[in-house]
Design a protein that fits this description.
This protein is mainly alpha-helical and 183 residues long. It is built from six helices and no strands. The chain is 81% helix and 0% strand. The N and C termini lie far apart (96 Å). InterPro entries: Volt_channel_dom_sf. It comes from Kocuria gwangalliensis.
Length: 183
């Protein structure tokens, strides 16, 4: 209601200025009214600036989370030579980063629920229950990540079983040993 009254006062003041044909004498007599009419508007403008600052801090927080997760995955790549260990470390970084993003953006108000859903989505490809735009995009990215992790694990497992035979044995020798009546 305060804003409605303020608009009425501004309209009344502008009507009086129009009737006075916006002459300098009108402004000299009523300059103090201009100040009192602008003060509530300045408070409204200050509130808008505060909202912008909140958005900027949220963007800065999101940027810090993404930056920390990239540094963490790079450190894991430098420290771990084993592919499976590296995938496990990067998956842990992805789970923690995505849960922090869900919490920082406001998709979840409870961090433990954000962590649970991020872990479930990262591992299985399903699990996010929120339906805001950020959550949906993150859900698709984490589902794609889970497919890539599954493919990496399947490839590593296949490489383990299909690794080269010991020197001096050919694949024909291995087949003859597996055949009935072989050595």
């Amino acid at each position: 209601m305060g804003w409605v009254f303020w608009v009425i006062f501004v309209a009344e003041f502008l009507l009086r200025a129009y009737i006075a044909e916006f002459q300098a004498a009108f402004w000299k007599r009523n300059w103090w009214q201009v100040i009192f009419l602008l003060i509530p508007f300045l408070r409204f403008f200050r509130a808008l600036q505060t909202l912008r600052l909140l958005r900027l801090t949220r963007v800065a927080r999101v940027g810090g989370i993404v930056s920390a997760s990239v540094r963490g995955s790079r450190s894991a790549g430098k420290l771990l030579s084993n592919r499976i260990g590296w995938v496990a470390a990067v998956t842990a970084v992805v789970v923690l980063a995505s849960s922090q993003l869900l919490y920082a953006v406001g998709s979840h108000t409870d961090y433990s629920k954000a962590l649970y859903e991020a872990a479930l989505t990262t591992i299985t490809g399903s699990g996010l229950t929120t339906s805001d735009g950020f959550s949906q995009i993150l859900h698709v990215l984490l589902a794609m990540y889970s497919v890539a992790v599954f493919a990496t694990l399947a490839g590593s497992l296949g490489a383990y079983f299909l690794r080269d035979q010991p020197v001096g044995h050919s694949s024909e020798d291995a087949e003859s040993r597996l055949a009935p009546g072989g050595n």
